[in-house]
User: What shape does this take?
Amino acid sequence: MIRKLLLSVFVVFSVGLFAQTNLSGFYPSENVSGLRFGTETAMHDNTIVVASESSILPTTIGMVYVFSQENQTITQENVFYPDDAESTDQYGKSISVNEDFIVVGSPMHDEGLIDAGAVYIYRKVNNEWSFFQKITANDATSDKQFGAFLKIQGNSMFIAATNDVNLDGIGAVYVYTFNETEWIFSQKLTVPNTVHLGEKIEIEDNLLVISERVNFQISKYHTFIFNTNWNYSDSTEEFGHLEENSKDFSLENQQLYITTLAMTTEFTNRLYILNRVNNSWEQETILTMDFQDFQIGKVEVSGENMLIGYESYTLQMSRKFPVFYYKKVENEWQMQTYFFGEGQAGMDDRLGNSISLQGSNLVMGAYTEGPISNGKAYAFNLENLSSTSFEKSQISIFPNPTASTITFQNNSLNQPKNYELFSLTGKLLQSSSLDNNTISLENFQAGLYFLKISFDNGLFETHKIIKK
Assistant: This one.
């Protein structure tokens, strides 16, 4: 049972409180096909796997690329795309890598039945990656979407079929084991009264958590425990409601991390943290994580490191996407820095819509970076962050709330150039150059506004302003 208790609230921050860290990206060196490189990422030790996306308009074929990373040098090793895959199969929609195996989901593959789905397995032998095995569901049906999500760990592989219709509900997870010769089916996991079970799968030792996408806003999380076989244990309450959308989750050290977006007048980003206590999940805390008008998306936690990605924004102004890095210090999550890609300042790149984190090593995709959304991926080791990464660069605005005029103080090395004032709906209300350090709001009604301040180096900050 989840305790409906708010134990602590994380510090709400705006841009400028912490310095950004710019990343250096990589792209396939050969056999490039398809757009949106970086739609999915996965990593294990020195192996990095990145998928591009298939598209009908224009017709492009998505592929899965394999890279090795040695001493911060990334080298392409192979690229996968099976002969029997079509551009409509969503090959690469889900990928996972562990030790010497890479698995790739193709949930819309027509294996005798329309959109029944398939999974392709690749193995590394004598330092060479090659095709190993193709798996389809033993009870395949049309529109099962076998391979919509998958996870591999050791000799176990978990494959979601989010549209599987079974006696319990909709959605199932198929478990396969490796017998040293091939991957064989061992178990099918279902939960009563579920809708689209298997949106995401997380595993830690003998603990397996499978998310259910009830609808666009609501998710539930179902736990299985291994004892000879995987056995259903318990489920959380629903996360999300009419004014809050559930987004993503991560499992680490017997804790669940769940991101949601509260769609109130201020669009509050929240991170719920749940502890595993007596074979159930109990809520520990809620952290609020607001950055400009970005709306929260992905969360990945590994050890003492956590990455938070943002998937969209409120104001319709194209811009680069941040990914925030938090570190657990004395049992509290503390903001360290935020990452940006190499794309242009005024162009969406969707950095962080796919994130993989293993210890201090991370891989992220920016699948719309570039003039034709060719995409890019970024790899980084968090241990390489130096103290200079955290020099503060800050704009202070006061009073806020205000009855008439606001004053800002610039503590950064860059000079403010101009400002734009937007309504809550994103309508531009006023813009001007910044000739002094005051801005008048006397002619505006009481309410919430967004103030965008642009600097002479092309960067900008957005602050929420409350007019009394």
